[in-house]
Amino acid sequence: DIQMTQSPSSLSASVGDRVTITCRASQSITKYLNWYQQKPGKAPKLLIYTASSLQSGVPSRFSGSGSGADFTLTISSLQPEDFATYYCQQSYNTPRTFGQGTKVEIK
Amino acid sequence: QVTLKESGPVLVKPTETLTLTCTVSGFSLSNAELGVSWIRQPPGKALEWLAHIFSSDEKSYSTSLRSRLTISKDTSKSQVVLTMTNMDPVDTATYYCARVPVRGLALDYWGQGTLVTVSS
Q1: In chain A, which residues have their Cβ closer than 8 Å to the Cβ of B105?
Q2: How far apart are CA B111 and CA B104, in angstroms?
Q3: What stretches in chain B show pLDDT beneath 70?
Q4: Which of A10, A54, B47, B97 would disulfide-bridge B22, Cβ 3.0–4.6 Å?
Q5: Residue A99 has pLDDT above 80, yes or no
Q6: How confident is the model at residue A107 (pLDDT cuts 50, 70, 90)?
Q7: Beta carbons within 8 Å of B110's beta carbon, 6+ residues apart
Q8: Peptide bond between residue B14 and the one before it cis (omega within 30 degrees of 0)
Q9: What is the pLDDT of residues A5-16, one digit of tens each?
Q10: Residue B53 forms beta bridges with which residues?
């Protein structure tokens, strides 16, 4: 199975900050990396697919980059509604696997 | 409007078999461009992918749970069913179903999830 490792596990940031979360795969997954946002008690929401494609309706302050085994999710200017947990997931092969999550908290 | 809704027991006993149903609307399970996945999340923990099924009846399972899982679909009822045998308290989790487009293979629409507790 492909292992997905996110860093950091948690971070504290202020409204307006630029936030970067990284995700590393245990092998190359080319571009097949997705990012999700999850708020407490809610289902995850797709933000980015195939590393850098913005899902319809997702604000443009979210962006994704990377290829191969190293990927990044960037929030250009953190908004109050962005405080949540973020997960990466590889869809390169089965079984699909998720990272352990990154919790973004208010500083 | 695409929706998915999970249904099944709230409480199961250890060693019992769990059967969960995902009822979809707004798309067809016969659509060659789409599939459905199951994902779970123990309280306070990370997401765990369990299985998926596509219109071709292609199926795939979690490596660690493969021996306990079965996924199937009833296209006429717009339902995808997941069974998990020999339930244990560590299987207590919120279980989600989600749609998977073949293009991109991300989980683009999710159900609200259903919490299943395993306890005697």
Answers
A1: 32, 34, 49, 91, 96
A2: 19
A3: none
A4: B97
A5: yes
A6: confident
A7: A43, A44, A45, B4, B96, B97, B98, B99
A8: no
A9: 999 999 999 999
A10: B36, B59
